[in-house]
Amino acid sequence: MRHLTKLVGTGLILLTVTACGGQETMATHPASGNDPAAPSSATTPPSPGAPGKPRLELPPGSTPVPAAKVDAAALPKDFPHQVYTANGGTIINLRAEEGGCQHALGEATEQTAQHVVLDLSETKAQTGQMCTMDLRYPYISVALAAPLGDRTVVLKQSPPR
């Protein structure tokens, strides 16, 4: 009798795990069903250097901005300051810093004939959310109103928003 109880208990556990595994597949891959309202899995990726979410790799076609044209004096000494252009100079791709549940943000706050000021920040983490204590250095993209040309890129940092 004791072995029968263990056998039935083990069977129930296996049945529960198998059922949960099937539901997880539907939850993580909703586009695999036949629901016409579900988002398509064949979405078009953003064009190289297009503004959007932070990414781990430099977008293809990015050209480095000479170090003499990057003013990173307002950033902490250990903050990355690699800057690239794309799309004819109308997109700036640059290294940013983010950590835990926060994500890097970038915004062109001033654009003159002499310089472009880029404000780097992070999103605020949600209150009560558990987050890892890691640092990441993704590339973020910022659109400019006109090609960068010979203007200087001035980098500054704001508190999380």
From TrEMBL:
Q: Which PROSITE patterns match?
A: PROKAR_LIPOPROTEIN (PS51257)
Does the keyword section mention Signal? yes
Record region (Disordered): 26-65
- According to the record, the signal peptide region is 1-21
Keywords from UniProt, A to Z, are: Signal
Q: Which domain of life is it from?
A: Bacteria
Q: What is this protein called?
A: Uncharacterized protein
